[in-house]
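Review form for a predicted model. The reviewer records the input and the model, then writes brief findings.
Reviewer: anonymous (R2)
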Amino acid sequence: MKQNLLITMGDCCGIGPEVAVAAWQAQADARLCLVGDVDVLRRALGWRGLQLPVAKLASAAELAEVPPGCLPVWQPSGLPAGLLDCPVGQIDARAGAAAAACIEAAVEAIQAGHAGGLVTAPIHKEALHAAGVQFPGHTEMLQSLAAQGGSMPPVRMMLANDELRTVLVTIHCSLREAIDAISCESVLQTLRISHQAMQRFGITAPRIAVAGLNPHAGEGGLFGNEEILHIAPAIAAARAEGINASGPFAPDTVFMRARNSAGHPGEFDLVVAMTHDHGLIPVKYLGVEQGVNVTLGLPFVRTSPDHGTAFDIAGSGLADASSMQAAIRMARLLLESAAG
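Model under review:
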């Protein structure tokens, strides 16, 4: 069961259910189980033109009993009724509540040993808020659910594709709050988490570039002193621990240096960025269809596609499932690396 993966359906008003069923069909992996509303996922099959029998499971532990060719769906108890009545392409509190309930149930199943990892379809933050869920996103919710003894594990968000990996020091907060949250300890903790994660990817001595916060990485204090006060000391401390970190580098050029493409081997295996948009724009610019979001620091594997709910095309059958497929492949790689 530790090699099983759970795929949550995400926001039922968006493209999550559609890319989830499409990715499951493309993977043909008997160790994948969808977590969500059976009727919603049946509708998604219709949107994709897929005619697959659906096996409704009473728990994630029943995955091994599903006949080949059947779409396994575990519908947790407590999902709101009438999810098919939620308006497709619009914010609805019922959709937010259902998305949160699926995530919570999936984590409980993993903690009970019924699966080893989680792949999450996109949720909508406003729908979560409308449902009374106070977490700003998956990362913070999963961090809370993984808490043990009242202590939450330090986690970080990584966005990765075949050409570039980026880990963020700060995630879902305002830019002003993000700047205030940058400290020597937060940067050093990010470097430690990143180093350990890359080793789990099989990179023994990962080369980590650290992007500065300010233009030209502060230009020696002319454009800001966060690099001098916080970032450079964290890099020095990390190097003293044997972590191959360097910088801080100008954030407008370090991603080009790290990009690994045909004819251009990257100088670094990963870039640590200070803020959400600093780190994610370069990866998403290379193409969201292959981008994968990985939560580092959790006691289990978690990945997700590099896109949102795409309300504008929900229900059309046009959603590209490539990023969801990449997220499943990444989760599978991480599980196999952990097992090996």
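Findings: The mean pLDDT is 93.
Further findings: The longest strand covers residues 156-160.
Recommendation: see findings above.
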